[in-house]
Write a structure and sequence with these properties.
With 344 residues, the protein is α+β, with helices and mostly antiparallel strands. The protein is built from ten helices and twelve strands. The protein binds glycine.
């Protein structure tokens, strides 16, 4: 009898515990589903675009004329992107054309205006990604391709591969409608002085002179996301060094389920911390907003001075955090946003 009573008490206790656990479980499940559906029901912008022209030690004492030139360069690229999106152009076309404008502008460290390697040459990296299909293409260490972003796109559409490098990538360029130029086409006086400064200081890399990578992320009217990044890499780089720009999940990423991201800064850190993939994962698996996900990675995972990212999520929300002194950047959307910024 005594034993039976004890078991009875135990049974009542266990039953209570089970009831509480089930109630708690249902509560947690409902809260999570509610959070999910709240986010999925978020109003979606028709289109959104963000661009960058590099992050780094950008002095607030920048002469007015220089600041205006950078702003003009960014505005020109952003204007083109916004107009194309308004007309309904696909995200990938917008990314490619906007990056062309930035690559052709000698102010930025991509295409014309790319930094010099330790040997006094230019080696360019670029990547593009289609958020709808996760198709992607990239090139690394190309020396004679005028617009590396276009070659990256050809890698995506015309080969079964993702990343082509050096001479092989240029051989492939010959089989495509891709403009080749002599390596000296990329020379600019400013970048040559940066190389001289880096070599005189016998510093491997001079942080204040390395930035200027360009990037573009887009949500188009069909709800498709795309991202692209193009760069000359780092001043005084050696031994075929490749940065984060052509590494998918490091410097470039796009996925219609989450967001499109392009990075700028110290490539090694963005590769080590899989920055763009990590932001997308926080958005997807932790239900973070794009602002919270990108802030977390830029300010809690990376170190101050490493750089920044531009992001557009699938709803058209834009985030552009950076942990360096400044980041050349711009954003526009279907609700009338149009801004270009360098510092806060
Ligand atoms: N973020 C550009 C590079 O490190 O090459």
């Amino acid at each position: 009898m005594i034993t039976f009573k004890r078991v009875g008490h135990l049974n009542i206790g266990v039953m209570k515990l089970i009831k509480i656990s089930i109630t708690l479980g249902v509560f947690i499940f409902l809260s999570f589903s509610c959070m999910q559906s709240t986010r999925e029901n978020m109003p979606k912008k028709q289109f959104a675009i963000a661009i960058h022209g590099g992050a780094g030690v950008i002095s607030k004492n920048l002469p007015d004329s220089v600041r205006k030139n950078y702003e003009k360069g960014l505005q020109e690229a952003l204007d083109l992107g916004k107009n194309l999106l308004e007309k309904g152009s696909p995200a990938l076309d917008v990314v490619e054309q906007v990056i062309h404008v930035l690559e052709n502008n000698p102010l930025f460290n991509a295409g014309k205006g790319a930094v010099f390697t330790a040997k006094g040459e230019h080696e360019l990296d670029a990547a593009i990604m289609n958020g709808k299909t996760l198709a992607t293409g990239a090139v690394a260490g190309v020396k004679t391709v005028k617009n590396p972003i276009s070659l990256a796109r050809k890698v995506m559409t015309e080969t079964p591969h993702v990343l082509l490098m050096g001479a092989g990538a240029e051989e492939f360029a010959d089989s495509q409608d891709i403009t080749r130029v002599p390596n000296s086409y990329f020379d600019t006086e400013n970048r040559r002085k940066q190389l001289e400064r880096a070599q005189q200081k016998s510093a491997e890399i001079l942080k204040s002179d390395t930035y200027g990578t360009v990037g573009c992320v887009v949500l188009d009217k069909d709800g498709n996301l795309a991202a692209g990044t193009s760069t000359g890499g780092m001043t005084n780089k050696k031994f075929g060094r490749v940065g984060d720009a052509p590494i998918i999940g490091a410097g470039t990423y796009a996925n219609n389920e989450t967001c499109a991201i392009s990075a700028t800064g110290t490539g090694e850190e963005f590769i080590r911390h899989t920055v763009t993939a990590r932001i997308s994962a926080l958005f997807e698996y932790k239900n973070y907003s794009i602002e919270k996900a990108s802030d977390y990675v830029i300010h809690k995972v990376l170190q101050p001075g490493d750089g920044g990212v531009i992001c557009v999520d699938k709803f058209g929300n834009i985030a552009m955090p950076f942990n360096s002194a400044g980041m050349f950047r711009g954003a526009a959307d279907s609700e009338g946003l149009f801004e270009v910024k360098i510092w806060e």
